[in-house]
Structure formats: C-alpha cells, structure tokens
Fold these 2 entries.
Entry 1:
Amino acid sequence: MDTVDASVHYSQAIDEKPSLLVLILDTNPYAWSTLSATLPLERALASILIFLNAHLAFSHANRVAVIASHTKSARFLYPTTTTTTTTTAAAAASGSEDPLRDANKYRQFRIIEDQVQASFAELMNQTTAGELVDAKETMMAGALGLALGYVNRLVRVDDGGVLGAGAAGEVTSMNARILVISVSGDLAEQYVPVMNSIFAAQRKKIPIDICKVAGETVFLQQASDTTRGIYMQLEHPENLLQYLMMCFIPDTATRRHLVPPTQINVDFRAACFCHKNVVDIGFVCSICLSIFCTPPEGAICTTCNTKLDISALGNFGGNPAVVLTKKKKTKKLKQSKATSFSNEASATSTPGTPAS
Amino acid sequence: MASVAKGSASYKKKDGSLVLEKDSVTWTPANAETPSLKIPVSTITNLQATPATVAKVMIKVFATKEGGATEPYVFTFTSASSARMEADIMKEALTAAIQTFKINSGAATPSGSAGPAATAASSTAASGAIAAKLAGKLTDWSKTRLETDLELQKSLLKADQELSTTFSEAVLSGAVTADQFWSTRTHLLRAHAIERGQKRGPYNVLATIKPKTVDNVVKMSLSREAIHEIFDQHPLVKMVYDDNVPKLPEEEFWSRFFLSRLFKKLKGDKLLPTDNTDPILDRYLGRGDEENSRKRRKVERVPRTMDIEGNEQNLSQKKGNAPDLTMRPTRAENIPIIKTLNSLSLKLVDLVAPADTDPNQVEDQDERYISEQRLIDLHGDPEEERIILNIRDQRQFFSASSNADKARKELYSNLKPEVVLQEIQKTLGESNLNLLTALTSGNTGKGSKVQLSRATTQIVVAVKDRREQMLNSSGFKHKSGGLPANVFNSVTLVHATTNEFLRHFWLAFLSGDEKRAGDITKLVNSLRNSKERIASIAKTADEEWELERARKKKEAQEEYKRTGVKPKRKTTEVGGGSKVVEELLAPTIVAVDKALGKYQVALGKVDKGLKTAAG
C-alpha cells in the first residue's frame, strides 16, 4: 500500500483526430497499358481498394476520397454526386441481391469498392479514342487542386460549426494527407500549378505522399520533400499492396513516432518556363519568380510582362569564356607567326564579348 | 623637423621617446641624442593598438623592410599619467599620416607628393582624412570599399577560424586570388564591418567590478576605462575623488572606496550595521548621488499630448495611483535598492544619445502621439495597395517545342489509343472485381513470395538509410563516420577549398569574360589537384584504418590471453577507411568531374572552331 507509484503517466493528450486520406490515381491509359505485364490494372485497383479499406478500418471516423488524374481532366471517383444511380444500376446489372445488404462485408468497404469501380468505368467509357490521340500527359496539377480543395472544405466546414469563424483554418478537425499513385512521366508543363499546389499543401501542413509506380518525375519528389511526405519509387511494382501497406498506411499523427521510408536523394532542380526543360542554372524574374533557361527575348518576362534590367548580367550564361579566350590566345600565338590571321581573330572574337 | 605627435614609450624594454615626424616614426632611447630607430611612413603596412579596456598601452607598427618581409615593432607607452592619451594621439596621427601618404602616392596629384608644406598643412590634411574616414565608416558599406579594406578582411579572418583556414588553403597556397576570394564574400565583410562599427553602450560599472581573493588578500583590478565609466555614472564619486585624492594616494582611495558603505549604497546593496566605517568616505553618505548627477537629456519641447506638467495642480497623489495605505515611510525593505537601480537605469538611458529620433522632426511629435492613440479597429479596412501582377496565359508557350512532351510521345508512340482504351474498358466494364482473385491476377504464382520479400527489403533499406541520417543529424553517431580526427579535418578542409575553387571556376566560366581565361586554366589545375588530394586522403585514411585495426586486434588478443574470454567481434571493429572518405566526398567529386567535363567540352569546341577557321 505504501509503495511509491512509479508507473509513468502520460498526461499528454493523445491526438485522436480522425484522418482523411485523399488518393490521387494517375489514370493515364497508356501508362497502365505499358504496365500490364508487371502490374495489371485490376490488380492495382484491388490493391488500392484494400488499402483504402485498411485506412477506414482504423477508425469509423476516418474518411477517404479518390481522385482520378486523367489525360485531360481530373475528377472525383469517390465521393461523387451521381454515385447512387450508378451503384444501383451496377447492382441491378449484377443481378444478385442488394450489395449493401451483403452480410460478409463491412458496408462502408462495399460502398467505396463499388463507387470507385463504377465511376472509374464511367470515366473510361466517357473517354473516346479521339480524345486520347494527342493527350498523353496526366492532369496532376488539377488533381492536386481538387484534393486540396476537398481537404480544405472538409476540415473547415467541421471547424466552423464548432469553433466559430475566428478559429477557422487554424485548428483542423482532421489530419489530412494526400497520396499520389503516379504511373506516368514528367510534369514539366504543369510546373507552375503543381508547385503552387505544393506550397499550398505545405502551408496547410498536408503531407503529399508519392507512390511512384513507373516513370520519372522531378517535381513530385519535390512535392513530397517540401510537404514532409513519403516518396517511394517502387522497384517491384507488382507488389503494390505491400508498398501501400508498409509505407503509406500510417497517418500524420502516427508518423511522428516512426522513421519514414522516404528515399533520401531529392532532385531540387526546377523547370524553366520557356521550354519546360529542367535546368541546372536558370534566370529568375525578380517580379514574378518565373524561371528561364536563358534571359527572355527583349528582356521582357514572358509571364508578367515586366521589363527586366539584364545589363547587370553582362555575358553571364552566354558562351563559356574559355572558348573565346582560348581562341584569342591561340590566335595571338599564331599572330606572332603569321599576322594574316589577325583580322579574322578580331572578327570571330567580338560577337560573344559583352558591350562593357 | 617638427614633430606631429610624441610620447614616452619603451621599445624592446628600453625606455625612450617615440616621435612621429612628417614622414617617419622615430624612437630615441632615453639616454641618447640621436634616434636609434626610424620607420618611414611609406613602409608601414598595418597598425594595431591595445583596446582601451586593457591596462597596458601598446602600439604595434607593421612595416615592410627591404626584401618585402613585414616586421612588427611594439612600443609600450610608459607615461604614468597620460599613457593612454599619448597613445591615442599617436595612433590617430599615424593613421592620418599613412592615409595622406597613401592618397598622395596613390593618386596622380603631384602637389601631394611634392608636399613641402609645413606640418600645419599636413596635419590639417590629416585631420581631413580622419574626418573622411570616420564619415566613411558610418555609411560606406559599398562593395569596392569593403573589398579593398585590408584591415577589415584581416580582422574578419581572425574572428572566423573556418574562413581563415579556407582562405589560407585557397588563396595563400591555391590559385584563387584574394580579390576573387573576397568578391564572393562581400556580405560577410559587410556584416563584419557593421558589427565592428557598433559601440557598446554604458552599463552598470559598479556591479561588474568583483573582488578576487588571491592568497587571502582581496584584490581588485580596475582599468582606466572602468574608472572613467564610474565617474561618468556617479558624479558623486568624482566629487569625492577630487576632494580627497591629492591627500590620499589613489590606490588607497580606491581600495577604501570599494570596502566603504558608500560603494554599497551606490551599488544598491542594503547597508548592515556590521559594515566597515570609513571616516572620510562616510561623510558623503548622506549626499544624494541623484540630485547632483542627473545630466538630463535635453528635451527641448515636450509634446502636449504627454506633458504631465500641466496637470500638476490636479495631481493629489504623487506617489502613484493609490494613496499609501500604511502611511509609513520605509515599509518595504528593498525599496532603496529598487530606487537605486531605477535611478541608475535612468542615468544609463540618459547617457546614450538617442539614435532613432531625428531632431528635425520634433514638430511632428504631437501628431505622432495622437495618431498612435487612435483606435485603428474603429476605422474601416484600409485600401489595399498591391502591385498588380499581369500573368499571361501560359499555354501559348507550352505547345511549341517541348522536349519532355516529345519524349513522352515517343514513349507511348507504339500504343494505339483505341486498343489501349478498349483494354481498360474491358477490365473495368465487367461486374465488380472480386478483390481476392484480382489480387492474384497476372501473377505467375510461384515468384510472388520472392517478389514480396524483395519489396519489403526495399522499404526496410530505405527506413534504415533514413534512420542513419536522422541519428547522425541528432548527434547520436559520430559525425566523422569513424575517421580519425586528422583525416576528418583534412576531409573538411579539402571539401571547403574544392568548393571555393568550384565557385570561382563557375563564376569565371560562365562570366563570358575573356579576360578571365587565365583564371579558368589556373582553377582547372586546382580542381585537378583537388581530386588528387582527395585520393591521397583516402589513401591515408586506409593506412590509418589498417593501423587502428591491427592495434585493436592486438589489444583483443592480449585481452584474450589475460582473461581467457574471447572478445566480442564488435570490439575489434574499426570505422573509417577510404570508403568513408569517398562516401563523404562523393558529391564533391561529382561536382569537380562535371566542371572539368564542361571545360573539356568548351575546349574541344574551340579546337574544332580553330581547325575549321584554319582549314
């Protein structure tokens, strides 16, 4: 009775907030077609659905959303506004009893499985071959925008009711995170919107996890790095489920106690706005921070129309000086031998030299 | 010859006098007539003096001798009463002389170099130079001035150890010139110049003076500077000092003062009945330091909004807001301390000239105070003054010649959209997937388990890498990766210098300036040397590693012999070796290779160009 109670008491309030998972699925048909040997779409879809179910199984208050990043548009696969009709239609088509009354499956799981598949099928059915001809990218920026908007709405709406307008946006009622399952290549065209989405997510403390099944993107790496999400380039994409379950299942509250399996090397290079090339050395507009691989024509920023003063640059970034100087040096040597070259030397060396 | 400044100073422990004449500094021993040392001003490269807080007053003059070597001459000022003052005068005069010399010799003004003008003229010129320099010190943080200020650069190098090692590696023994080195570090120079330009404000001197007990004798060290501060802050002490010091030796005065009740009172300590009494100093106890001391900052005009004087007759209680309920004068014991500290703080604030107010704008103060009191919440939203950013539609730039787009088109070029779409529609179009069967679809069945463990391995490896990194950054594991200290030092050094070379290489390479071709070739050589140095460091690391391992093995064997217990493997494991060095410097090597590669390409182009030009 008199012994000292030495057990540890955790007075710290445990974060019991439910967590929201927004999954962005790259639905580029070409990419999935090339992947069919290693990871057929149905298997990938099944893995993703199981992963979503696992997320929901953690807490009845957990929520999910699935967004398709298609070739020319991005849209919600779940939740959707038109789902009720399609599911019942699907159920009727299958001819069995009402799927929502299936005794062997948790109802929430069932709803999500059905809706995601139905709306995915609908999306594909609406896509025509003609649309696909010259659309080979994926609308990742749009999908990220949708995801962020959804997260913001869910979190803010719940807030506003409880805490009033003053605290809205400061306290979140849910821990949100975004998971991108990316199968296609670079997003250089969408550099600006993607980067804006990344910064918005960073501000809202929403980690963006990247599950890279195929292709190479620089910017998604940066997305996960700046938002402190997890980046995983799958070496064995056939085991998508294993990766999802091991890397991406912990929510933001749990991650604080874990070592994330993020890959360490991040490529921080940016793409120039003019040719969408990834650049090592670039020129940045001092007004709107646009990036150019060479100073824009006429020194006018192509994004914001600002007249820029590039006189301070001199010949920076032009032809490496070594070329010209070497030329001059060797010419000089030659000059001492044969003076006939002197005119040519001055003629060739002038174009690159700065006016100063 | 007329002397500009002179003072009694000892050189090499011999007494004598130091005299600054028009163009040279001479030192004459005390018993000699002719100067035994003469340093022409033109040879002086640097000047150093001990700071005012140090009791010993010395000036160090650096002069170049024939042959280019720099020799320091140290003069200690010996005058008992005015050493500091003499030194200050000497220093200023010397600086001025060096300045004028530099101006005269540097600029193409023949009148200056001819300069047969009398001392008066030169001294006025000198004072002008000083004024110019002072003015320059306050405002001129321009790049050119900072980059030519050798003294500033030296003091920065002294302050920053890391920078100074880089400097000595890259500049003194490398290909980078000092100008290049500093040109990329103007911000550091500027920060340092501003830091040096800052003055320390007044502080509570009495509280900082603490007695030290050495051999049972209480000792105190008191610098001239401190005494000056005490007089400034406590005019009462100055008064007491003036009254008594001729009668009382100075040393005794101070020793008595620091033991006296007066000192305790001024410091704000509580007086105890057991405190020493002092017949002389106690006489001043009753006098208030306060009354005769407050050198009030002159306030020309108090703004009406905060002028309490007008309220004087309406003020019923001057002791604060509420009347004192107890009506007893010294209720709280520590009130005297609070009062002293308060008055001291007031004094300190008064001593500092306000730097943030512009004397010309006194008239606006009323307006300022009034506007400060306005209730901003009651006003409407202020009009937003934003710069409108005109963003043009981006898409028009996208369509044309996008490399990434092309690459992707090629990637999917063999796929027909109709086929692809049908395939997917077929997959999705059927009734809902059975998750179990869908999961195994496309699997050969047998290899799945192996692949599963492979995937797991990838994740676990990533987690391990990450953990390593996190532990490293939080200091759990040794930063050097098991390298011995000397090897690790050379690794950091070679890293710093290689970065320096790389930085200058790219600056020169990209500048497009022909004049820098020589620099580039030099820097390329330095970069090649850097690679060799990295290799040699890796080699030494390996050697050290071998030695360490042999030593550990031997130790373990001896331990085994002695105790008969087989040592655990862990104790014989040794970190380090060339592998760690290469790991640490891998990015550096990549960077160097890239730089050299670009250089080679550029060089090749030139050769080609030449050939075509020649042919």
Note: Residues 73 and 207 of chain B are 38 Å apart (CA to CA).
Entry 2:
Amino acid sequence: MMHPLKWPLFALPALALLTLPASAGQNVEWKDDGTVLIKLGEAYNNAVIQTTREELGTEFGPDKQPFKDVTISVTVNGAGPKGGISGPLYQFRPIWEELSGGKLNIVELPFAEHYTKMMLDLRNGTGQYDAFMVGAFWYGDIAPAGYAFPIDELNKSGKYPKWTYDDMPDSLRALHQWKGVGYGVLNDGDGQVLYYRSDVLADKTHQEAFKKEYGYDLPNPPQTWQQLLDVSKYFNGKNWDATDADPDSGTVLHLKVGEQGHYHFQTLSSSFVLNPGDKVTRTKNVYWFDPEDMKPLINSPGHVKALEFLQELHKTGPQAQVGWSLGEAWDYFLRGKAVFAFSWGDLGALCQDESRSKVKGKCSATAIPSSNEYYDFEKKEFVKLDKPRLVGNTVGGSWHGVISNFSANPEAAYSLLSLMAIKPASKLMATVGWDGVDPGFKYQFLKEDGGTADVEDYVKAGWDANDAKSYVHAYYQVFTAPVMMPYLRIPGSFEYWDILDKNLSATMSGSKTAQQALDETAQSWEAVTDRIGRDKQKADYQAAIGYTP
Amino acid sequence: MRWTGKIRFLFLAPAVIWVLAFTVFPLGYSLYLAFYKIEQKVEVKREKQPMLDAAGQPVLDDAGQPRTKNVVIKEQVNTATFIGLDNFKRMLTDTQVHEAVRVTLTFVLIAVPLELALGFLLAVLFNQHIFGRPILRAIMILPIFATPLAVGYTFFTIFYEVGGPLAWTGIPFLSNPTWALMSVIIVDVWQWTPFCFLVFLAALQGVPDELYEAARVDGANAWDMLKEVMLPLLIPTIVIVLLLRMAEALKLFDIPFALTGGGPGVATQPFSMLAFRTGLRFFDLGYASAMSYAFLAVIMIVITLFFRRLRANYG
C-alpha cells in the first residue's frame, strides 16, 4: 500500500495534466484556435515562437510523430550549443524531436575539417550524414556532382514547415539553388556592411580637425573607400575612445590565413573591378574569370589597385590583425578600439550584447562604400566616377542546410531544416547575436524597405533602435544593389579561394607585392582550371554567373 | 607441446591482416593514385520499401497504413586514366611546394640543432649535484607530455600581440612571416628540448666516475672533460637523438596548424601540411600522394647518406 505522505507526489502531476490546454508537450503547445507555441530554451531567453498548424505543415500535429524511431545526423561547423550556426540546431533539437518522434544527432566538425568530412562522405556515397550546414561556396563541388538532394518537391508538398525562396532577394536566392533547382533551406544571409562609431564621427572637435587636415568635411558615414581611408588615417593612433589610455585604431580587419580574410578583399575590390551593365557579358559584371576562356581576371589592374588600397587600409589598424580571425577583430571593435569594421551581420547583433560590447547605441551600419574609380575591361583604363555607386555583395557562407543525396531520410532531415526556416523562427534568430544567423529575408527588412519587420521587433530583442534601423537598412541595400559582386560557385571554389587567401596574406604581411601576389594567384588558378577541366569549368562558371555566350 | 604449423599461422593472422590493411594497402593504393587520375560519377535512385517488424510483418502508422522506408541505390563509376609522371613533374614548377620545402628545411636546420644543444647543456647541468635536482628534473620533462596541438593553441595566447603576456615586447610573433616561423621554432624547442635533455642525462649518468677521476688526475679542466670525455662517449646517443628528432621535425604539422594556420601567407606551411591540404582539403589525392612519395624518397636518401657518413667516421 502506498504511504499516505506519498499521495501528493502523484496527485500533483495528475492535476497539472488536467489543467493543460488542448495538447502541450514540453516544447510545443498546440492551441485549439490553431496557433502553436514553440518554446525555446535559455539560450534564447526562453523565447516563445508563435506559429500556426498551417505554417507547420500537415506532417506535424499533436498526435503525429511522423519520423518515430528515425535518427538523422546533421554536420555543422563546431561552435557548441551556444555558438554561431551550430547553436540553433541544439536549441531546435528538442522541439523537432518532440514534433517528429525522431532523434537528431548533431555532428560538430571544426571549420577546417567540415568540408573534408562532408566530401569524403559524399564521394564515397556512404550516407553517414543526412544533411550538412554548408557554406554556399561548396555548391560547386556538391550540386553538379549530384551529391545534393533537390528539395523543391518537398517544399511544395505542404507537408512540412513552410518557407519560400520568394522571401529571399535574388542575390541570396541564387546561392540556395543550382541551375534553377532548390537545394538549400533558408537559414542565414551573409554579406558585408560597414560598421562605424556614430558617436566618434559626429564629434564636432574631430570634424573640425579632420576638415583642417584633409580639406573637406568629415564624411559621416564615408561613401567611398578613399574617404574611409582618410578618416581611418585621421583617427588611427589617437586616443579618441576614453575607455582606456591606449591609442585606438582606424579600421580593424581579420586577415588570418586559412580563415576569412579573403572576403575583405572581395568586398573591397568589387567596386574597383565590376563594370556595370544590364546583363552579364564578357566584360560587364564579371569579377573572377573571363567567361569565354576561363582566363583569370584576378590580376587585372582593378584587382591590383584594390589590393594596394587594402594594404594602405591595413596600416590604420593593429599590425597583429594579420594573424586575427573573426573573433579577435570583432572583439577589438566591440571594445571600442576601432572606428570602422566591415564584416557580417553577426557584428551588428553582437554590438547589442552588453556583456561583450561597449558600443551599444554607437554602432551604426551602412552599405559598403565603393571606389571612386573602376577599371574598365573594354577600354583597358580606369574610369573616374562623379558619385559613388553601390556594389552589393553576398560574400561569406550564408550557412544553411543541404540534404545529402545519399540520405535514407531526406524527408526527416528536411522537416528539421524547414522548421528552423519558418518566418517567426528565422525572424527571432536574426535578432540574436550569438547564433550566427544574419538577416537577409524580406520579413527581416523594415517596412520602408519593402519588408514586414518593425524596428520594435529588434528593440524587443534588446537592440538600440538607431543601431537596428541603420543595420537592417544597410543589409537591405547590400543584398538588393543594382550591381552585385558575383559569387564563385564552381568545382574547386574552395581551392581557388585558398590560393587567393594565401597570396593575400603574404601581401598583407609584407612578403609579396600586390601585383606579384595576384599574378601568382592567376598562375595557380590556371593550373587548377586545367586540372579540373577547362571546358567543364567554363560551363559551370557560365551557369553560376548567368552568362550566355 | 609444440604448436602445429597451421595454428601458428592462425595466431599470426591478426597482425598480418592489420599490417596488410593499414600499412601495405594504403602504401600501394597511394602509389597507384600518384600515377592515375581518378574521376568519379555517381547515380542515385530511391525506392520506398515497406518497414517490417521483428516478425517480418509490415509496421503500420497511426492511420493503419503501412509505414515505408527509403532505400538508396547508388551506382558509382570510377574512371582511372594513367598520367605517368605528370604529378611528379608538377612539383618542379609548383611554387607552393618549393616554399614548403624551404620552410621545412629552415625549421629542421634551426630547431633540431638548438634542441640538441640546449638539451645537452641542461643534461650537463643536471648531472651536477644541484639543489632540488629531482623536482627540477621532473618539471623539466613536463612539456614532452603535452599534446602538440594544445601546445600550439596555448602559445597562440602567449604570443597574442594585443594584450597577450608578451605584447610588451612589441615583437610581431604571429603577424610577421620571419617571426611567425621563429615562433613555431620556439614552441618546438620548448616542447622537445626536454626529450633531448632526458636521453642525454641518462647517457651522462652511465659514464663511469673513474673516467672523470682519471681526467682530473691528468689535469683536465671542465672544458677538457666536456670535450674529451663526455662528448666522445655521448656521440652514439647524440646520433640517435639527432635522427629521431630529424624524423619527427620533418613531419612537422600540429604546431603550425594550431599556432599560425601555416601563415602569414605560406611562411609557416611545412611540407606535410601542404600534402594534407592538397589531398584532404582539395581532394587532389594523386598529387598529394606524389608529394608524399617524393618527400619520403628525399628523406630516405638524406638519412641513408647521413648514416653512411656517421658509420664511416665513428665505425
């Protein structure tokens, strides 16, 4: 017989069950009116996402667990349960497991090994992993080889959580598709914008001193790279931030070899190189290769000038940044040590995290500056511009899920990835700094930019209103610019970029000149193209950039 | 009782299988890869098949319908084309290979002699009666037990140029190409000098006291004893340590991987890192195999010549 004192222990949970709404699991609550509440954990401050049965698709429901006993494995860059891109997987794991009845195995791999492990799995067709959180620059190696599972049918079926490519600007949509077929599930939007210290640029004393020294008004914010260099030079070495006694810097960069330094060069050089035009031709809107013969353009006078410019800009930051990854450079800006940083959306969100940042409320963003001249591929000379022209970019990985074609459970994998892609989840993730998910989709843009978000959405997530406004607008501008930096998505992209990266690093550390580094890059690229096959590369490159011979 | 012939083979089989599978086969296969270009094509088909329970009966879902599972059918076709010595010829014009060879040789030629010299001097010092010798000796050998990768990351924080513990020196430990290579050498010397020290100390302690006594009676000073007694007796040990360290140093990988990532540029990218990246990052497996075989051949030639010379000099 049960001891009388033990009765309350059993009675309490029973009472709780009786008082619950229509159906409530630990992480998902199904309301009678059709709304569904998804409860996130502490990492997201116990936020609750409100969605609907309709939005979750027909497969998930209070009495359904469509993938019971199914285990799926998803690889991701290793950053832990509260790290960029991997963090959201951990946070959504209990939710998806409750909805699906399946098990999610998160396979964290160091960035340097992720691509290798993925390709080994795909090349051998083992199907060990069901999905990969990929960088868009890996598409050239996985999509044309038939390693990726096309998702358009699953997306249209209405069975799984709903999201659409129509929410993406064309520039980002292109990164999730290959020859018009969808492979990638919406998650992260990557592109670089310029972050600047709004308080420092607005300082009257500095404005007067700058004008005296450079002969024109301190641009707030700079519109051209040349202006940015002047402002950077002016502030570099001065103790303009009173938080410590040490001198501060102009622009901080992350230039460590094997990491993401080459993206700085891509962003900066695009406006020195890209020739504007309505469509892609042999000389217009091309950056990487001549689409007719795959000869590298990387050592063109425009590229060389841009690299020389980057060397100058590097001098306005700490010398140590040659060995810095993203984290160190971001931290330097967040500690109030640099006026400028051009980087991804994570930085804007991290500015708002007062446990790391001293610059909340002073961290404005603007579209990336442009060069006041570019190299004309037809005339073979530099063309001066009267006014700055915006060149947008999607540099970075735009990290998102792609399903392996060897997966035995593509539907289960898709249901997980699409759950994380529904509008309210995606909106929430983009407002948080630590999760690595950056904005880029229509519902994350403000209404004045044709989106559906309000500044209040960001303020509720802890943002300073002015920082948020400038940040989202800057992203809208770089993703929808009339001239866009073309993304390299052909077989061997990783290798082409690695060669470029090493040569850039050698230039920034002073062991090669800009011309020498880019000439050697072009020479090595030729060898890679010949090895993979020039005709094959040409066909894939033409498809990737939308060039019609 | 004598084992019969067949049973002996049975007991040998695991070791033989292990060596064949994990040594002989990879060696043979990588040699094959060095001479062939492999192209892969894969076709994937899927079939829905009913799920069966342990009794072989169809598993039903909540609506009473049979549950199905996906079965992936793949057809993979590998095409191998003989390319002869192309991969080996490519190395002759590849600037990355030349640079990696330069980095590896610079590293070996500076780090290994330094480790031997410092290890020897420390061994001589610790061969004396000094205060707290057992404790100091134990502390001295601790670096050997650290994982090189962890050591690399630890020194990354020590050499951190903004706010790191050595930032006050103003030395660009990781951002200057020359200093970055020096930093890799410093870390390797820190980790492997204790190994040289330990072996030399053991050898020194094996030298009979009578020899020192006799030298002293003959009027030898400390320098004479070092030159005429210790060094000649330690030559065989020094040679062994030199070979072991050279073989290890030529395989340098972990420390630059963690400390510098091979940069700035390729200033600290040793040959083994280049081969690894070529093969397993860019999947140019044929070229990576050719690189590895060429490297192996060079090392074998150098070591053989070295041994021959030593044998000639010291019998």
Note: Chain A has two domains: 23-185+400-435, 193-280+301-395+482-490.
